[in-house]
Amino acid sequence: MPIEISEQLSETAEVGATLTLPFELRQKSRLLANLDDGREVRLFLPRGTVLRQDDLLLARTGLVVRVQAALEDLSSAHTQDPLRLARACYHLGNRHIPVQIGAGWLHYRHDHVLDGMVQALGLTVLRERAPFEPEAGAYASSHHDH
């Protein structure tokens, strides 16, 4: 029988298990998954919940589960020109593409068509496997800084 998880913890607690998921699954409020040790869990979180790296979840059994962001196939675009970076973010956002933004770089799920567009905007694009933590959006409430 799956372990049921229905709440997030805001304070630190002793972690008993980890749950590694890609971003696509960390956006689901209802999910059947396996903990990293193989035990089955069922998530029943409030609608709109987006799980982030190191979030803590509390199971009905009292088990505390740490969320881990899985490695994903990403495009990593780089430039030292802030205007080019802003343009790339604008064009990706205009297509509703989730992006993770840093100083001089951005990540998005790998897509060769988008890579071509971003390269045409003057950025260098590399393919890599890394955890994906895209921006939450201007109206999202989150306790994480990006």
Give a written overview of the molecule.
The structure is a single chain. With 146 residues, the protein is an alpha+beta fold. It has three helices and ten strands; from the N terminus they run E-E-H-E-E-E-E-E-H-E-E-H-E. Mean pLDDT is 92; it is low at 142-146. The chain has helices at residues 23-26, 82-94, 112-120; strands at 3-9, 17-21, 30-34, 40-44, 56-59, 64-69, 71-78, 100-102, 105-109, 124-131. The chain is elongated, with a radius of gyration of 17 Å. A hairpin with a 5-residue loop joins strand 3 (30-34) and strand 4.
Supply the key terms.
146 residues, alpha+beta, 6-stranded mixed beta sheet, 4-stranded antiparallel beta sheet, 3 helices, 18% helix, 38% strand, elongated, disordered C terminus
